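note to self: dont lose this again. the chain is below, predicted strucutre after it. 557 aa total, dont forget to put it in the shared folder this time
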Amino acid sequence: MNAALLAIITFALFLLAYRFYSAFLARRIFALSDDEPVPSQQFEDGIDYVPTRLSVLWGHHYTSIAGAAPIVGPAIAVIWGWLPALVWVVLGTIFMGAVHDFAALVISLRNRGRSIGEVAGEVLGTRIRTLFLLIISFLIWIVLAVFAFIIGTLFVSNPGAIFPINMQIVVALILGWWFHRDGGKVFWPSMVGYGLLLVSIFYGIDFAEAFPAIREISALDWVWILLIYSFIASVLPVWLLLQPRDYLNSHQLITGLTLLSLGLFVLQPSMQAPVINPSPDGAPAMLPFLFITIACGAISGFHGLVASGTTSKQISRMTDARPIGYAGMLGEGTLGMLAAIAATAGFASVADWNSHYTSWGAASGLSVKLDAFVSGGATFVSALGIPREDARTFIAVMVIAFAATSLDTGARIQRLVIAELAESYGISALTNRFAAGALGISAALLLAVTQGGGQGGLVLWPLFGTTNQLVAAVTLLVVSVWLKRQGKPIAYTLIPMLFVGLATVVAMTHELMGYFSRFSDQWLLALIGGSILILSVWVMLEGLRILLKTRSGPTTP
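---
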């Protein structure tokens, strides 16, 4: 099968979905209007609530949700064949993931820009709010530990990426200060900054060789550095680092996706993986684990946290929710699609693919899968005449930058969640952003450096997919109850909720059985996973009970 043709079909379906389905949701379900007030203007504080132009905010939102997960997930899932992976990416993105992100953003905008956990309290009650905020905190705890260790591992294996990534931080700080002071046009100054980043990529190896001590820094050492940096980023004003860095990353992401797509169309490789491979050696059942392995590339609860945690506090007009919420997820689906194709058509032959995916154990290694994407992507980009080593460096920097933006945003969201819980229970000390941020980072640091004999958050990766999908299911349930009270149709959010919720509960139960069978070695996984499953089922059962009792019709805002 021609991989370029598959990409064209995917692009066409995404365009049609945005043109028609998202327009239907915006008009019929959410009734968006430019005249409606937004939280960024009502509660502007210069720290979290900051009205932001669409292009800048789209870049922040897109790069915050498009971390390493939509690359790793599809690259693992193609072990079951390329067709199941691509079908779930496309249909999951259009009918579930994009609807979830759009809905989470709108419901937060209609509730003073509060997080989806806080909104759950308004919709389902105080008890549900506390339970859901605890689930969210568990998810971000895992995300921070996992992503910090992944970036540290990539720094160790790709020391040439260290200089460009740090240059990006410096350029972002300068741009943030410049934009905030002058309030001028954003695009051209950011393009100059992005040009500097591209140049720095070619000097990354030289920098690493000039400072050989950098190569002596271990992945665990990088975890400490990265999480301390994340704490600083989480308490800085959003305009100083988070917005400009994510905007720069949006340029890099668009450039990367463009080069990958053009190279794919020039090369027109064939898919080297089987169409369907239902029983790979050592792999769990394709159903339901396909829906868990590909999380962020199809639907992700973390996206709802970004949408309601940071993005809703920056939107300058209500109608921007459609291009940011729905189209942002289509962009991530595009990344997931290209990751799946790079991990299949990026191989020279079927034999090469088979040797790489010889078993589930070989396919599920994170570093192996990231390397599969980097190598396959470099094959596509080099078809445009770019030297292969330069192509590899660019894609490696792109992956690290994506993971870093998710780390930054996750740290800020965790700070906000801790502050919300502290405010509810009268713990005034933790309502301070420095105290809340320090607690969130300290917990992630403890998890990353103590689990798995120095393996950090990587041992918790299986929990990421299941917890992520459970948060997505609960978010869709909250939105469904809210829509019913407004007298709006709920099928467009309730059906995805039931599908994702059922698949995830089955997968989580299966994982927990494995953890408890190895309790002496994996007691922490068992306790965390068990707590998350109990909390999630509790919330969903109570939510469904409230949904059945709720009368359909408009209520007073």
